[in-house]
Design a protein that fits this description.
8-stranded mixed β-sheet; alpha/beta; 2 domains; Rossmann fold
Length: about 700
């Protein structure tokens, strides 16, 4: 244009020494430029999800960048129209440069000052991003919150993660220096919490503020959006900042703030915040903003992609939410409990070393990633189940008995059942007595039978101690198995004995025309029958009723003898191959028992109203905890119609609710799963000639 103007001023004459102007160099967009990010998502190109771990910085405009790993939380304030465009640009940058395995995005947009339709129109594009899919067991379809209940659920999920983080359960009172040190040591994955406007109740406001100030210790960074007037000479920066803090209380807890300024709010001023006070001047740049249509196209381009698509690191499998109900046979892989499937299961367990004297594995129910269980030899040797009344303790013991029986033959594992409440609390363990592995079932209501039981169990412990003779249980079985496999030396024939007596033993035998093979000794298998020392598991329900029986309890006179023999099992059972699985509703009554003092494997059941019976936590000796939903075994076969998939329309504002699960309806008549399993186990044991163990042991 300048060259044309000069020619026009000279009357169209071109100067003689003028040379053609060089072509302008093509403009290279910034790496975080919206156009470059959209092209990376549409292709996709190697730029997509290429940000290395430890970097979580965003650009608000040319020359203005914020490192979230340093400031912890970022607040942006300005008029609504410009604020939404800048927020979309910031979230899109992080979603384009970080894979879903490295960054999850959580939205809280529950400000009632704006209608739901307007909030859904502004953030509807976010639901297409793979970063908002729950990957840590959150009970929702997407990590979105459009009402106060959803906002409370999202903040509760994040606070639980902080409880398990490096600062522990007292993270809210940690010093800023401790938060900075923990944030510097954290290497991902990260969480971006977008708080758009007032989150709702005072409790949620307080939690979002604490997440903004302390969340970086567990990789949680907050982006707070506050609607406020643009900073102008008529409205100074300090006034705009205070207006933003009044609109959203968490804005004051952010480590950095960005305020849109100018007559049309196209300039962004970024500055640090210390102790809730802004520290200008900071930096000034032209704000990058994108439209809702741009964000919709960008998010839809990322929707079908996974981490491997863009060459990033493989994404870890997402952890699903805990099921509300679980069927034990499904968790065991025995949806159709048949003798053939059980025999195949026993054969596989034998090949894996779970034979006589081997492992004792069991399944409790379903977890977030599949069946949840443990092994008594390596994780135990005993198991303690604690839970209030109605939490599903008895049903869990039945499930443990059923899973133990499904994993070992009756001649290699024996079960002894004991109802400590004396039948006062329902059927107890009676439904599990049909299992062929059960050698005895005692209801603590008859003092005579209780004393006989205590004497028999004590005699069994003494017999095992004499047979083992100080050897560990597994080592004794290994020696016995080796002795059974040894071949006895061949006895000399009569001719060889005569030759040896005549002194011709060293000479060569007379040659004949027949090739003589050395006769091998005939190996005879041991007599059919149970092993003299199979694993023995004693399952006790209502242990607290035995330790502290009521005044009117029928079994009170003999309860002490039963408790003493159970104490002996808890003390010496590990080396004798005897394991104890006990449940108690009153941990205060059983606190002084040997089982409680020495038990390393525990189950803690929740109250029955959260959300139902059978939900609990499996705690290992090394501190690991695994949540689970107990598998039901006394239910009946579910109707197939209730297991068919259904498709229902769901609006964006309802994606943050827990998924609506279709209730499973059972057949009103017919046998229970436990009865079906017991029948199949009985037939399978006859097919493999597995003789059940007698209790007391036969002389």
């Amino acid at each position: 244009f300048g060259a044309w103007a000069r020619r026009w001023m000279r009357g169209g004459e071109e100067p003689a020494d003028s040379a053609p102007a060089p072509a302008a160099a093509a403009a290279v967009p910034d790496a975080d430029d919206p156009a470059a990010l959209l092209l990376a998502a549409l292709a996709p190109t190697p730029r997509l999800w290429s940000r290395p771990r430890g970097r979580l910085d965003v650009g608000l405009g040319a020359g203005s960048r914020i490192a979230l790993q340093d400031v912890g939380a970022l607040g942006i304030a300005g008029p609504r129209a410009r604020l939404s465009g800048v927020a979309r640009s910031v979230v899109a940058q992080l979603a384009a440069l970080h894979a879903p395995a490295q960054l999850e995005i959580v939205l809280i947009s529950s400000d009632r000052a704006r209608p739901v339709a307007q909030r859904r129109e502004e953030w509807g594009w976010l639901g297409w991003l793979p970063h908002v899919r729950p990957a840590h067991g959150q009970d929702c379809r997407l990590l979105l919150a459009y009402d106060r209940d959803q906002a409370a659920a999202r903040t509760a999920e994040l606070t639980r993660r902080l409880d398990e983080g490096p600062l522990g359960v007292n993270w809210a009172t940690a010093a800023p220096r401790a938060v900075r040190e923990a944030a510097a040591a954290y290497a991902g994955p990260y969480t971006l919490l977008v708080v758009d406007g007032d989150p709702g109740t005072s409790a949620v406001r307080d939690l979002t503020g604490r997440l903004a100030s302390h969340g970086a210790a567990a990789g949680i960074h907050v982006l707070v959006l506050a609607e406020a007037p643009a900073a102008t000479p008529a409205s100074p920066l300090a006034d705009t900042y205070e207006a933003a803090c009044e609109a959203v209380t968490a804005f004051r807890d952010c480590g950095a703030a960005a305020v849109l300024s100018g007559d049309v709010a196209t300039t962004v001023r970024t500055f640090a915040v210390a102790g809730g006070t802004p520290c200008p001047p900071g930096t000034t740049a032209t704000a990058d903003a994108v439209s809702a249509a741009w964000a919709e196209r960008f998010a839809r381009a990322l929707a079908p992609l996974r981490s491997g698509t863009a060459g990033a690191a493989p994404q870890q499998s997402a952890a699903a939410a805990l099921p509300t109900t679980a069927r034990l046979l499904d968790e065991l892989g025995l949806a159709r409990a048949t003798p053939a499937s059980l025999m195949a299961r026993w054969a596989e367990a034998t090949e894996q070393g779970q034979g006589v004297g081997g492992l004792v594995a069991f399944v409790l129910g379903g977890g977030r990633g599949g069946p949840v269980g443990a092994e008594l030899v390596q994780d135990g040797p005993h198991l303690l189940v604690e839970g209030p009344a109605g939490s599903g303790r008895t049903e869990l013991l039945r499930s443990v008995a059923a899973s133990l029986a499904a994993g070992a033959r009756p001649d290699r594992l024996a079960l002894v059942l004991l109802d400590g409440a004396g039948g006062e609390r329902g059927d107890g363990l009676l439904p599990a007595a049909d299992l062929p592995h059960v050698s005895a079932h005692l209801v603590a209501a008859d003092p005579v039978r209780m004393r006989e039981f205590a004497q028999a169990l004590g005699a069994e412990l003494k017999r095992r101690a004499e047979l083992l003779d100080g050897l560990p249980f597994a080592q004794w079985h290994a020696r016995r198995e080796l002795a059974d496999r040894m071949v006895s030396p061949r006895r000399p024939s009569a001719a060889e004995q005569v030759a040896a007596e005549q002194g011709g033993g060293d000479g060569d035998p007379p040659r004949t025309g027949t090739l003589r093979l050395r006769a091998a000794a005939v190996r005879t298998d041991p007599a059919a029958g149970p092993s003299p020392l199979p694993r023995l598991v004693v399952l006790v329900d209502d242990l607290d009723a035995l330790v502290a029986p009521g005044l009117g309890s029928a079994g009170r006179p003999a309860a002490g003898s039963v408790v003493r023999v159970l104490e002996a099992v808890a003390r010496d059972g590990e080396r004798l191959g005897v394991h104890l699985v006990a449940a108690t509703a009153r941990p205060d009554r059983t606190a002084d028992t040997e089982l409680v003092r020495s038990c390393a494997l525990r189950v803690e059941l929740d109250a029955p109203d959260r959300p139902g019976p059978g939900r609990g936590l499996l705690r290992f000796a090394d501190g690991r905890t695994v949540p689970f939903q107990g598998g039901r075994v006394t239910g009946r076969i579910p109707r197939t119609a209730t297991q068919r998939p259904t498709v229902v329309p769901v609006e964006w504002e309802r994606m943050g609710d827990p998924p609506a699960r279709r209730p499973v309806r059972e057949l009103g008549n017919g046998p229970t799963d436990l009865a079906l399993l017991a029948s199949a186990l009985d037939r399978a044991s006859h097919l493999v000639s597995a003789v059940p163990v007698l209790f007391p042991a036969a002389p």
